[in-house]
Each structure stands twice: as C-alpha cells, then as structure tokens.
C-alpha cells in the first residue's frame, strides 16, 4: 500500500470523500498543520495532500510547514480564486509537486499522487546506492575516516589520556566526543573547554575551581571543570595554548589524580579522563620551550590524528547532504539541492578551513542561491579552477604575476591591508578575496 498523509485545513467533507475514493492508498487524515508536525516527528511519509483552508492570513504558517518538510512531495487543493494571490502562487511554485482547484477531478488527482509517489520511489532507489551513514558522530566513509573510527574504537576502551591532533575545523571535538561515547565513561559527563578562548588570568580558576575569598570577587566556593567532569571526560581543546604554569598543575593532576582549588589547601580527588586536542605541532613547541615535555608524553599515550577534509574528499557528497538537511529551514524557498557542478567544484578545492569552512560556505549558499540547485558560483570557492587540465599558459602567467604583486605589496606595507589595497588600486574586500584565491595569509 502506498502511504499518504492528508492534511485537512478545510471543513473536512472533501477529505473524507478523498479517503474513500483513493483506492490503493493507506491514507492518514490529520486536521491541522500542528497535528501533522507531531505525526511527522516520528513517522515517515513520502507524499502529502494539503487541502487548503482558504485563509490567506495562515499562508505564512503553511509556508513554514512546507519548508520544514521539503523532503516530502506535496500536492495541494485550492479554491480557484485563491490563485489570484501572488503570495500563494509563489508558495505553490516553490513548495508543491502539483496542485488542483476545486471542484477536483479525482482521476487527475490520483494521477498526480501516483506520479509523486513514483518520483519518491526513484529518489529512494538512488539513495540506496549511496554509502550508508555510520550513525556515529564522525560522518563519512572514506578510508581515512574508516581508519580513524577503527582507531577510536580500540582507544576508547582503555582509560588513559588521548591527544588528538588536526587542523582547525577538521572535527577534533567530534573525535573527542566519539572517544567518550564509546568508553566506559559514556554515562558520565563530557565537559569541553577551549584553552585558547579563556583569558590566562581566569583559566586556572575555570579548570581547578576556587575557594571563597581566594581573590576579589570570589564570594563562594566554585567547582572547576575538572571536578565537573568527574566520572566522565574533560576535553581540553587547543591545549597548545595552555600557559606554562597551568601545564604544571595539569601534569600534577595526571600523575596524582587530585587537584587543589585556587586558594585551597586540601586535595580533592577527581576521576576524569583527559582528552586533549591541538592544531599546534607539539613536538616543535616542546623544542621551542613553549610546552612541557613531560606533559606532552603524559598526554600522548594514545595519539590520534583527524584527517583534514582535503584527504577525505570522497566524503564531500555525504557531508554536503547532511549539512543541507540539517540547515534546511535556513534555505531559500526555491532551493532543492546541490548541483553536480557544485560538487565537482568542491572536489577540486582544498578546503583550508576543513569541515567548518564547508558548513559555512554551504549555509551561506543555501540562503543566497537564486536557482533550484546550488551552483559553483554560489559557493564562492577561491581558486577552485576549471575542470580538466589547465592549458592556458597566458592565464597561468597572469595568475602568477597577480600573486607576486599582492605578496610584494603586503611585504612593503608590513602586512597593512589598507595600505596594500591602496597601492594595488583595489578595495580591502577585493584584496581579501584575492588573498584567499591565491592562499596568501598574513
């Protein structure tokens, strides 16, 4: 049986007549959009029939509902005079698979619903050929991600510190969450702190807590994040930015499993697993004296490397689909998906900002795209380049000269963007775009 969700927004008489006449369909009748929302929260329907209420004042609510449930194919039934309203015509053109006017030709309506169901079956069949979603926190099925998940599965079972390395935006916190979720501490808390985002004067109190009267403003005892993570895991992101004096305190905790609060005199036992992450080359930081060698070896009992997006481009289609559906409510109304040309352009780009950059570019394109599909120009990918080999020697020479001119101007101006832009005769924003295009950083 083909399943159909029928949303009644009129008097209901026609809906019940439809119910009786739609042979071969398993029809579920609901009496409002709110009831449909509750049903769709835990049941799946590929096709929906929307019986219009005739009240133009509720079209905004209908538009929000259809935008949220865009993955379904909707057929609408309206009173003919309503089609003279521009807002309704736009809603129909943007969100509906087909529409009918009263009085309804039931034969044509059955054909419309059957066509909608057939298209849904075709789409579901195409989706079956995609590699399955893993169901974990780390999305993707590339060899690099498969190896990462296998490594995490082994490490998670052993209750020892973990050090996660990887570029900014590559998903180090997701890897940390996966380690925690697969460990025996999964039922305990997962507490995260970005060591680079907290002022050095405050981070000691944030991590270890303080006693009342320890400093001005300390009017009561406060538990630190390490205590809050007891029984679970604490994730220290960007640990390479941790001040040296705090590194010594953290080392003491790793060795003795106890802490002192700021201003305190008694030891407090804490049972928390430390998972640290950094984009900094810690061995080089150790050699430069910016990071304690003994702490580095304490933390790196189990080192993990999260691969950058450029090493797992096979995951781009799946990641793109997941991001598109996650932020579907933000998209422009006419947008239905991502074009093959855009996916090809994404595969040619190196993604220096990794998955975080992918999310940001897709979200911006979902809002600003003017077509039914996201096109390469909507992503504004710098230097993605054309498909196939580059044979335009003159173009290559021009790009090389452009890069040299920008680099020289920045060097002469001491990396002053405004001064370099004036010298090159472009705006600051244009200079920023050119720098991104040529992968020039300050």
Query: CATH top level of the largest domain?
Result: Alpha Beta
Portion in helices? 40-55%
What proportion of the residues form beta strands (DSSP E)? 5-15%
User: What characterizes the major β-sheet?
Assistant: 5 strands, parallel
Number of domains: 4
- Rg (CA only): 29 Å
What number is the mean pLDDT?
84
CATH superfamily of the largest domain: P-loop containing nucleotide triphosphate hydrolases
Would you identify the CATH architecture of the largest domain?
Answer: 3-Layer(aba) Sandwich
pLDDT < 50 stretches: 128-135, 385-395
Terminal CA distance: 62 Å
Total DSSP helices? 19
Described by its quaternary structure, the protein is: single chain
Backbone structural class: alpha/beta
Architecture overview:
By secondary structure, the protein is of the alpha/beta class. The chain folds into four domains: 2-128, Rossmann fold, CATH 3.40.50; 143-305, P-loop containing nucleotide triphosphate hydrolases (Rossmann fold); 315-379, Helicase, Ruva Protein, domain 3 (Orthogonal Bundle), CATH 1.10.8.60; 393-437, Arc Repressor Mutant, subunit A (Orthogonal Bundle), CATH 1.10.10. It is 45% helix and 14% strand. The protein contains 19 helices and 16 strands. It has a five-stranded parallel sheet. A five-stranded parallel sheet has the order 7-10-13-6-14. It has a two-stranded antiparallel sheet with strand order 8-9. Helix 3 (59-68) runs parallel beside helix 4 (86-95). The protein is globular and about 80 Å long. The termini are far apart. Mean pLDDT is 84; it is low at 128-135 and 385-395.
């Amino acid at each position: 049986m083909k399943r159909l969700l029928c949303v009644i927004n009129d008097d209901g008489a026609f809906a019940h007549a439809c119910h009786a006449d739609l042979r071969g369909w398993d029809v579920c009748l609901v009496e409002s959009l709110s009831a449909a929302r509750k049903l769709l929260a835990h049941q799946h329907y590929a096709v929906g029939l929307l019986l219009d209420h005739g009240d133009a004042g509720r079209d905004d609510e209908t538009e929000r509902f259809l935008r949220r449930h865009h993955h379904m194919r909707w057929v609408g039934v309206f009173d003919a005079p309503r089609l003279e309203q521009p807002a309704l015509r736009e809603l129909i053109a943007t969100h509906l698979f087909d529409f009918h006017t009263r009085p309804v030709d039931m034969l044509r309506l059955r054909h419309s619903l059957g066509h909608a169901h057939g298209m849904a079956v075709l789409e579901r069949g195409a989706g079956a050929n995609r590699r399955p979603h893993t169901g974990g926190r780390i999305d993707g099925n590339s060899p690099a991600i498969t190896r990462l998940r296998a490594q995490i599965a082994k490490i998670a079972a052993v209750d020892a510190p973990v050090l996660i390395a990887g570029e900014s935006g590559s998903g180090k916190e997701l890897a940390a969450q996966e380690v925690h979720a697969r460990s025996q501490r999964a039922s305990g808390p997962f507490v995260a702190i970005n060591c680079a985002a907290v002022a050095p004067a405050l981070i000691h109190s944030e991590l270890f807590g303080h006693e009342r009267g320890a400093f001005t403003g300390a009017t009561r005892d406060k538990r630190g994040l390490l205590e809050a993570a007891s029984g679970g895991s604490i994730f220290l992101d960007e640990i390479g930015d941790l001040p040296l004096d705090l590194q010594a305190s953290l080392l003491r905790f790793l060795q003795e499993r106890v802490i002192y609060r700021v201003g305190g005199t008694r030891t407090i036992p804490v049972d928390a697993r430390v998972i640290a992450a950094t984009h900094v080359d810690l061995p080089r930081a150790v050699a430069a004296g910016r990071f304690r060698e003994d702490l580095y070896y304490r933390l790196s009992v189990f080192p993990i490397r999260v691969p950058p997006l450029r090493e797992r481009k096979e995951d781009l289609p799946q990641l793109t689909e997941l991001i598109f559906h996650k932020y579907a409510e933000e998209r422009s109304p006419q947008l239905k998906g991502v074009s093959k040309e855009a996916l090809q352009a994404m595969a040619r780009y190196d993604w220096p900002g990794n998955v975080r950059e992918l999310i940001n570019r897709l979200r911006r394109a979902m809002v600003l795209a003017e077509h039914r599909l996201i096109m390469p120009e909507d992503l504004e990918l710098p230097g993605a380049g054309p498909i196939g080999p580059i044979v335009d020697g003159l173009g290559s020479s021009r790009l090389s000269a452009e890069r040299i001119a920008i680099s020289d101007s920045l060097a002469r101006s001491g990396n002053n963007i405004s001064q370099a832009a004036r010298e090159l005769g472009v705006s600051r924003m244009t200079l920023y775009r050119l720098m991104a295009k040529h992968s020039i950083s300050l």
